[in-house]
Amino acid sequence: MSEHFIKNIEIKNFKCFEDFKAEGFGRVNLIGGKNNVGKTAFMEACYLGENAKTQEERLFFHALLVIELNRRPLEEFKIIENSNNFEFKYEDSLIKINNINCSVDEFDDKLYSVPDKNYKIGIRRITDFYQGNNKPLNIQNHSFISQISIRDNYLKDSIDEIKFLKKWKELNGFLLDNFNIEEIDVIKNRIFLFQNNNHILLSEFGDGIKQFIAIILSLYLNKDSVIFLDEIENGIHYSLLDNLWEIILTISKQQNVQVFATTHSKECIESYARVAKKLEDEDVKFIGLHKLKDGSIVSAVRDLELLDLSIEQEHEVR
Hints:
Strand 4 (77-79) and strand 5 (86-88) form a beta hairpin. The relative contact order is 0.16. The longest helix is centred in the N-terminal third of the chain and has 15 residues, at 57-71. The chain has a single domain (8-149, 223-312), classed as Rossmann fold, CATH 3.40.50. The two termini are 26 Å apart. The radius of gyration is 20 Å and the shape is globular. A six-stranded mixed beta sheet has the order 8-12-13-3-14-15, sandwiched between helices. Strands 2-1-6-7 form a four-stranded antiparallel beta sheet. A three-stranded antiparallel beta sheet has the order 9-10-11. It is built from ten helices and 15 strands. It has helices at residues 39-52, 57-71, 104-111, 123-131, 152-164, 168-179, 207-221, 241-255, 266-279, 304-312; strands at residues 8-14, 17-23, 28-32, 77-79, 86-88, 94-97, 100-103, 144-145, 183-187, 190-195, 198-201, 226-229, 258-262, 284-291, 297-303. By secondary structure, the chain is an alpha/beta fold.
């Protein structure tokens, strides 16, 4: 396993996690569990810890904003009026990635009392975002992908970037194979898909194709890094799940990218196991989260063999 991959995590007093540990992750990790068990919060903790490992305040501040703007949780994100201060309600939170500590309080002291001018974001802009009076904030984020985070500015910038990486043809090939779309491009600052000799705005297609595109872009733009895909199956027809997992497993191996993804779907879990078995990819893990009667959350990390056995015996894997 690559040195930069997340191997273990410890979470204390972060959202729904009071005292949680998990280890034994693979290159591609699928997180399942019942609703409101903390699947997304688990990924957010991994994402924050990953961005805090370098102890660079700007990366951590950016990661916090990505999480808050994805969720829009007013109760967890407070703006101090008439100032450039921010408060996140994560008192005494501790995230430990690969045995490296990330104290949210320590970053809080550094970041929100006197924000650095290079990453100061106006209070009015953030307030307008929450009130819906302005266009969404353009917080650049290539590694934490959710339906809310897939905005046109992100896609336009990402398409330009993969052209420099010479991966644009590969993206178009995936679109042709799965959606009969010959090409994606940015024309006059708008995203078009070329299909049946017509240029059609991406906005005229469903959310599924946008999710599909964003996942592929994230895989290509995060070589030798870690990405997080929340509710990976959202908007994607079940008939395309095998193709999507084959793309994820193949590109992540080529690009040396570790993937964490959440799902609510039994079909998505079965597809994941089926494709991993087909590709003989053993560097995959299924992380089942479970809430005990006392409210604590525990995990069960299964390798492909155990996951496959659970599916065959029709055990509950969500």
